Amino acid sequence: MKKRLLLALAAGLLASTAASAQNLRIGLNEDPDVLDPHRARTFVGRIVFTSLCNKLVDITPDLKFTPELATEWSWSDDGKALTFKLRPGVTFHDGEKMDAAAVKANIDRARTLPDSLRKSELTSVESVDVVDDLTVKVNLSRPDATLLSQLSDRAGMILSPKAFASADFGQKPICSGPYKFVERVQNDRIVLERFKEHWDAKNYNFERIVFQPIPDTTVRLANLKSGNLDMLERLAPSDVPAAKSDANLVFAPVTGIGYQGITINTNNGDRAKMPLGQDKRVRQALELSIDRNVINEVVGAGIYPPAGQPFPEASPYNNPKFAAGKRDVEKAKKLLKEAGVEKVKFELTFGTSTTTQQIAEIIQAMAAEAGFEISLRPTEFAAMQKEAQAGNFDANIIGWSGRVDPDGNIHAFATCKGALNDGRYCNADVDKLLNEARSINDEGKRKQLYDSAQAILKEDLPIIYTYYQPWPFVLSKKMQGFKPYPDGMIRLKGVKLGS
Amino acid sequence: MLRYIGRRILIAIPTLIIVSVLVFALQKLLPGDPVLTMAGEERDPQVLAYLREKYRLDDPIPVQYFAWIGSALTGNLGISLRTDIPVLTLILSKLPVTIELAIMAMIVALAIGIPAGIVSAVRKGTAVDYAANVVALSGLSIPNFWLGIMLIMLVSVRWGLLPASGYVPPTEDLWLNIKTMLMPAFVLGTGLAASLMRHTRSAMLGVMRSDYIRTARAKGLLSRKIILKHALRNALIPIVTLSTLLFGELLAGAVLTEQIFTIPGFGKLIVDAVFNRDYAVVQGVVLCTAVGFIFMNLLADVLYVLVNPRLRHAA
């Protein structure tokens, strides 16, 4: 009797581990917004889309482009047409065929839907031609070197045209990715299920993916430790030691393509009219007074690599010449003296979070030694954004999640009319260089242009970069084959749970 | 009795109107721009303009208010700006979760608070009384979020007994549902247990001193019978009203508790909505909460009348 009971128990146990081995539970930092790639805006939503929706092209860990729905692509000689050859035999989750007509319908939707957030990414697209069943030609109004990188993200995700005609697409997304949508309980979970007809289905091992938004990082880690999750994204630096010391977990951080920095109001309204905004020597002194290694070690637990430029180290456009310099208080004092100001007062605004608060305090203390008197103003994030646009700030601590193409990390921030240029920094030379750089496809020539622009910006300092945004993942020891990418996405190809 | 209830409902109407105006106005005072929040990192000016028009954010505030209240009266509370899900659907799916949490927390609170109150009243001035008071005061003064995290660390991570957070609907797995709700209900309930205990104690002390209790004692009734049947019953009158009113406090406490334990309920809904400037959701949730509150107050008054015979005639 006892024996039989034991056997039954063992069998039950086996069955349950076998079942759970096929599911993957991922802890997210917050709940995604609408699940329509053309209308979505959050970083976290992109993590879900990565499993749900295939794109025309994907990227490699060193930010090169690699085939996904498109097997090959080529530029016309004048750089005004981009032609894609599509993968044959691909179907959407609803059984519809993924072909050139579907790709055209998607790009057209992304650039014409009234509330599409992809419009600004596709402004150069003039029309899309269906050449044959598996060939698409994208015609541009001007050469646009950034287009391929846009199409490697949400703007290049191909949804089922039959499904996006319906109004509730955002609640029941249908794409062609390795996993299909099952259900969503807002604030609780998003469940995806293996798409057996996927063109690469054999490389995807999980039966189900469950995304669980758990905003508190300590609770998220506790869930992983207690076995309720298999992996999590964006661990807070304060929890890094706890994750590292746990033998059952693997800490897998990667330096991202985004950055954190201090944006200075140089030209936006009355608050720009003070030494910090008007005199670049004062801004240089501020930069010299900051030791980015201290921020990395004290606040970042070693995962906040110092940044001196907008392009991350993984990017071919990163130039070591512009890397973060050493702290030099004496030189900072000298610069302030030259500028004719001994004490510089300004207000530093930042979004309320423990990490940012700590960084602001460190900057305040370090800059004080050079002669800066900084008052700190923590502000709720949405409120800060509005104030920043209105020019109601001296200096802001603000970050950018980063884009694969260098243009995405600099153009909108440093050109006179850039949508994200809160300080309204304006320099005709920089505009010219950055506009030219986005129009040529040759990597070498582009790099020269970006180097020239960076040389000016490094001198003028409308933004003082502080560190590169890391994507700290933590995995259960059982997870095998996971590779963190600098864009912070979770790619599940070849990933499985061992015993 | 019916006339009494009818009158109370009529009085509730102007209250609701005032609440709806206040919610609307307060929200407009929130710093930040919902459209900026919605438009994502890129803040495309075209998109900003479109969204402003779509959600009528450029209309004068009174116009916006009447448009909203007009459709709210027909049961249409709008659509979540963030997720596209209708607000009513969101509320209806979150409400049962929070009600379950509130009921379980109430059970915890009553199960701890009332017996502790009785014991400390009956054994007034003894070590038991002091011990109960210390426990009650610590229950009141330990912050929910701290207790929550500590419980997660101990019960889930160290002992691995209960899930650390999350929610499973009872229809899916009843046992798992109870397991996930135990810790949150305990955290939420202990805070309330403390105030229930204090109230029970003072009510009991008041009743125990009254004449009829002395008479009962003189008749030689069993002490237990006197306490549970004669004293407690009268002492319960204020406790019943207090419990219904505490439900409001429970909803407020649920905001924090749900945040810690990641329970997709009402409290988490509103916190996230405020941070995302999801106006439609904030308005809908606050309106529903106000209706719920007014209803609970009404229920408290009716219960009070039912429990207390003297008021029954007055009504």
Task: Provide a descriptive summary of the structure in words.
The complex is a heterodimer of chains A (499) and B (315). Chain A has helices at residues 2-21, 43-52, 100-112, 147-150, 161-164, 217-225, 240-244, 275-278, 280-289, 292-299, 329-338, 354-368, 381-390, 407-414, 428-437, 443-460; strands at 23-28, 57-59, 65-67, 70-75, 81-86, 125-132, 135-140, 179-185, 189-194, 208-213, 231-232, 249-264, 344-351, 372-379, 395-400, 463-476, 479-480, 496-497. By secondary structure, chain A is an alpha+beta fold. Chain A has 3 domains: 15-31 and 169-254 and 473-497, Periplasmic binding protein-like II (D-Maltodextrin-Binding Protein, domain 2, 3-Layer(aba) Sandwich), CATH 3.40.190; 53-161, Dipeptide-binding Protein, domain 1 (Alpha-Beta Complex), CATH 3.90.76; 256-470, Dipeptide-binding Protein, Domain 3 (Dipeptide-binding Protein, domain 3), CATH 3.10.105. Chain A has a 10-stranded mixed β-sheet, with helices on both faces. In chain A, helix 9 (280-289) packs antiparallel against helix 11 and helix 15 packs antiparallel against helix 16 (443-460). Mean pLDDT of chain A is 93; it is low at 5-20. Chain B is mainly alpha-helical and 315 residues long. The model of chain B has no long low-confidence stretch (mean pLDDT 85).
